[in-house]
Here is the input.
Amino acid sequence: MIVSKDRERGEDYWLARPATIGLLKKLFIAALVLLVLADFTVEHHSYFGIDGTFGFGAWVGFVTCMALIAVAKMFGTLLKRPDSYYDN
Here is the structure.
């Protein structure tokens, strides 16, 4: 297995290397920019006023993702148990 060979040699797994992480970030950002720019090539037929704006899917998806993260953090603080909860 590749992971065990890397660990035996004392090397980081290829996805954990800082250079790989930086490259993946750049690739993902480039892909997202290309997808938003591809919005110029699509003719929009809006059903309500705001859905015909440029990059609607991108910014609505981003706002929705941020809202889901905020709700998850809120539930996490409400449902959190102390570290000693299972200690007897």
